[in-house]
Structure formats: structure tokens, C-alpha cells
Amino acid sequence: MLEQRVLDYINAHAQEARELLITLAQIPSPSNHEEKRAEFCRKWLEDQGASGVFVDEALNVVYPIGVTEDNPVVVFMAHTDVVFPDTDPLPLKIEDGKICCPGVGDDTANLVCLMMIAKYLTETGGADKLKEAAAAGTSPHGLVLVCNSGEEGLGNLKGSRKICETYGKRIQEFYSFDGSLSAMATRAVGSKRFKISVRTVGGHSYGSFGNPNAIAQLSELIHDLYKIQVPSEGKTTYNVGMISGGTSVNTIAQYAQMLYEFRSDSREGLDYMEQQFDSIIAEKRQQGMDIQIEVVGLRPCEGDVDLTVKEKMIRLASDTILEYTGKAPDQCPGSTDCNIPLSLGIPSLCLGTYEGSGAHTREEYVVIDSLMPGYEVGFQMVLSYV
Ligand SMILES: [Zn+2]
After folding, report:
1. Model-level pTM?
2. Ligand 1 centre and the CA of 204: distance in Å?
3. How far is CA 238 from CA 72, 271, 337, in A?
4. 130 CA to middle of ligand 1, Å?
5. I want to staple 110 with a disulfide (CB 3.0 to 4.6 A). Which of 94, 120, 177, 313 is the partner?
6. Domains of the chain listed by start with CATH number
């Protein structure tokens, strides 16, 4: 339960938070090009009085509070990247109690929640107290708040990887604010993503008829990949997401490529898919197909995590969301920034702080009335570690 003075703070800053969301949501931030948002977040945090903020080489904006050379830390992150490649400002409108903008919920609303918590800690002396306690050796852990990069698609979790590299085994617990208040990702869905291309000699469609066609060959490969029977235990999936290739209508295609992925909520499922994939590729190569494979994404499954700690984190988040929204969130597997710490055995949980719809579409929106309970959830989660 949040103290009255914290609730008052959240109320008093609701308008500011909404304006921050409106500003931030419009700043373009495609994965691997989060420079503009990272710079905005760094400057904003420093303007609130935050000290020690730095941007690492992965473009994470990191605000360590009470973090010494070697004390344990608890991490809270929200990602700055969006799935949209736009480099111009993202279009935003407010109507019917909603803020509509591509990326406004995933993950801008969560990012704003984290930034307002950072501001609160900085302004009200909480950060200073944590720093003093860390210096005196009397606090159980420091706090690392991160506006992180590279969560979406081909960002390949680079921000999360970098944080786990920087703080490693010192991370006791790891939270990502991502997704909505109605669902938490409590288990990691691992995945492997490939760019697969096929080449042939090609030729004139009439004059060289009979020569192998790269598009036809790639189609054969897709056909075989879609014959894979997924394991019945857990959930394992696969998908061809994009194809391209060829030269013209009267050219035997010399080149074709596709983006392909498989996913699973278990290591066994991923290993199984890898074997199936490898054997189909080997068979096609043996038949003379010229196939190149590039791994464009790798998200590991969960490793050996202390389940007692993870259960405690899930209970804390679930009870908190129930308290402030009246409804406990669903628990489901997901592919999130938590995949990296979970694969390293660090207890991690992904929860959201808004309600909305249309994530990963241009019609995305957040419900304005859901933002206040969302801030209460976010504040309570972080403050329970202060
Ligand atoms: Zn997200």
C-alpha cells in the first residue's frame, strides 16, 4: 500500500506525466536507432536532478542509485525502441479518452512510468538516502533504473544483454515494465530468427526454361519447413514472415530470400526445432540447393532460476495490480527483455502499467484513465525495493 504522500505526489504530477508521454511518444525510435529518445531521456533525468546518469554503448540510459563497486542490485527497465521504422515524428492524436500513436503503449507509457518514479526518488530524497545507505554498507542492494534499447524485433534484446553484462551476477532481481496491466510475462519464450537465401544461375524465362528457379526452390523449402510437427508439450511455433526475390516476369529468378523464425517456451522445444530445421536444410543442400543462412536473432529460454524468488516477485506484482486495478493480471509466457536475465538464472518478471490496444500497429492507443492506476502499480513495485 502506497503512503498518502506518494499518492499525492502521483496525483500532483499526473498532468506532467501525460505531457511527457505525449512528447516522448512522438520521438521516433526504431530498434538500433534509439539515439533521439535516449538523448531526450538522459537530459530529462538530469534536468530533474538525477546524478550519475550515463548512456552505455548499447544506447541504454542508465540511472544507478546507491550502486557501489560490488553491491547487489535490483534492475527496473522500460524500453525506448518501437517497432516502427519511422524517422519523422510519430503521428499522435487524443480522442475519446485515448492517446493514439504508434508505440504509445509499447513501450512509451511504461517508460514514462519509470521516468516519473526516477523523478520522485530524485526529488524527494529517496535517491540520496539509498546512496548514503550504500556508502555506509547498510542497504541490501542498489537500484538500477534503465531506459533501455533494442527490445523489439531485430534489436535482439541488446539493451538487456548489455545491462546483464554490466551488472552480471550482482543482479538479484530484474523487472521489465512492458505490456499492459492485464497480462504479465512470467516465463521466457525463446526464439531463433533467420534470413535464408537461395541462389541459382537463373536465365531467360523462355530461352533457358528448365534452369532452376530460386523462388521455386525457396517455395519448396518453405513447403518442407511447414511440414514440421511441433511438440505437443508446451507451445512451440514457427513462421515465415517475409519473402522477396526475383528480377522480372520473364527472368528465371536467380535469388530469393525469406525471414523465418521458430519459438518455444522450453529449451527442449527450441532444440527440437533446431534439429528439424538443420536436417531439412541439409537435405535440400544435398539435393543441390544453394542456401545461405544468417542468424538475425537469438532469444534464449529460461535457465535455472530460483523459483522461490521468482514466485515472490510474481505475487508482489499480481497483488499490486489487483490492489490498484481491481483485477489480477493473467500470467503467460512471453518474449521480452527478461529472456536474457532468465537465461542467466536471474529471477525476472515483465509487467505492464497501462491499458490499451493495438500494440505493434499504427492504430495503437492507451486509455488515459488507466495511466493513474498504472503509476500507482509502478511506484509501489519500485518503492518496495527502497
Ligand atoms: Zn515492448
Report:
1. 0.88
2. 46
3. 38, 13, 20
4. 29
5. 177
6. 4-188+301-383 (3.40.630.10), 190-299 (3.30.70.360)
